[in-house]
Amino acid sequence: MAAISLSKSGIGAAIRALVLMVVAGVASIVAPAMAHPMPQSFVSVRAEPRNWHLALRLPGDRLSVAFVQAGLLPDPGPGYTALPVPTAGQVGTYVLDRIAARSADGGGWGEKVVAVQPPRGKVDEWRVDVDLTPPAGTSPQTLVLDYDVIVREIATHSAVVSLDSDWYRGVQPQAPHIIGALRADVRTLRIDRAKGGMFTGLGDVFTLGMRHIAEGTDHLLFLLALLLPAPLLAAGRHWGGYGGARHTVRSLLKIVTAFTVGHSLTLILGAFGGWTVPQKPVEALIACSILFSAVHAWRPVFRGREPWIAAGFGLIHGLSFATVISAVGVDVWQKAAAILSFNLGIEAMQLIVVCLVVPWLILLARAGRYRTFRLCGAGLAAVASMAWMLERVTGKPNFVSTAVAGLLDHAIWGILALAIAAIGLTFWRKAPVRPAEAPTAG
Question: Is the same domain home to 417 and 290?
């Protein structure tokens, strides 16, 4: 049998990888959306500390044909209207008979089917989960997989294989790697995970945490709405003037720390407790949290209780974070390290945002020209939050939510404009407002 190695390089390998990615991408988009049979199988590989896990997605009609060709189901004959359908037990036995795992030296591994899911809904697709375990004392670093599922009976069939999770190579479920294809003439795949280490996985999860904030427009807008009133003192039912650098830093530390504590709690409980919280209500609550923050930036509705509000909303945002991190890491220590690294990534990006935005807010507040900027920012956040709530309740995007998301995609230009305006107003106004002289602004 021919073999595929992850270490292959060169133009030919690059071209094959590109073709595989295009084919797999098109198939993954088109196949679930249509009732027509999938032309290919898909095999997702997950590397675990002591074993490997395969998740097979098999097109139902191709599987039935394979059963008939193998003599495992009766031939319906010419002019048939429906193919015979195997039972879940038959599918599990068939898969085990056509999968063999071994070490690089040829030592055989144990194979066990842990779940078989028949087709559901409009997608004619079987899902089969298989655990592959090396013998005691054998390293699981290298897997050689012999695969004959459907390809033995149907020469034109193929299975696209992706590496979905390998902590030590820095591969996480959010960004799987396509590593090859199995077909009638290529039925063996070798995966070597000897390279990499603990810090590879930690670095990847740290980056994932940063990216989750940087690319999450709702989390980013929530943070910006929280920052808006930080430089100001509350005067009754209105925001007053500039409270000074010490007041601003103290307010920011309390709010950001409280938010961190809140989302860390639900992140830990969600990741370790295996919570399966419906995402639509969570996303709607996150949009609601932005609205509360925007209203508070307009008027101090929970004056002096900002840290408690930030902690409460942090609990909600943590539920969203937990869905991202729950699949990262496979044993207790890896998951604990992943949560810590992911949290550090979140905090690093929050700190970057604070450092990029707050100095200009302080300059605007000192220049006595902060009220218009604050009201406009609060209004934008409120409009965006209501548009997102409508989108997440109905499941349909709207013009406002799309426009706001596009606007926040260019946030760096907005920060640059803010910096220029703040510097310009500071130099234009010769006598900046002192904290003790801050005028009341409605």
Answer: yes
Q: How far apart are CA 48 and CA 219, in angstroms?
A: 31
Position 442 in a domain: no
Cα–Cα distance, 271 to 329 (Å, whole number): 10
What is the C-alpha separation between 140 and 194, in angstroms, rounded?
A: 9
pLDDT digits (tens, 9 = 90+) for 290-301: 898 899 888 888
Sorting pLDDT into bands at 50, 70 and 90, what band is 1? very low
Structure tokens at 80: 């048939």
Q: Max alpha carbon distance in the chain (Å)?
A: 93
Q: Does residue 146 sit in helix, strand or coil?
A: strand
Asked if residue 26 has pLDDT above 50, the reply is: no
Q: What is the pTM of this model?
A: 0.57
Shared domain check, 265 and 354: yes
- Give the H/E segment covering residue 114: strand 110-117
Q: Do 247 and 275 fall into the same domain?
A: yes
Residue with tokens 């073709």: 19
Q: How big is the chain, counted in residues? A: 442
216: left (phi over 0), alpha (psi -120 to 50) or beta: beta
Encoded amino acid at 393, one letter: V
Banded pLDDT at 73 (limits 50, 70, 90): very high
Check if the beta carbon of residue 392 is closer than 8 Å to that of residue 259. Answer: no
| Conformational region of residue 44, where left means phi above 0, alpha means psi within -120 to 50, and beta covers everything else | beta
Q: Are residues 332 and 340 in contact, defined by beta-carbon separation less than 8 angstroms?
A: no
d(CA 327, CA 330): 8
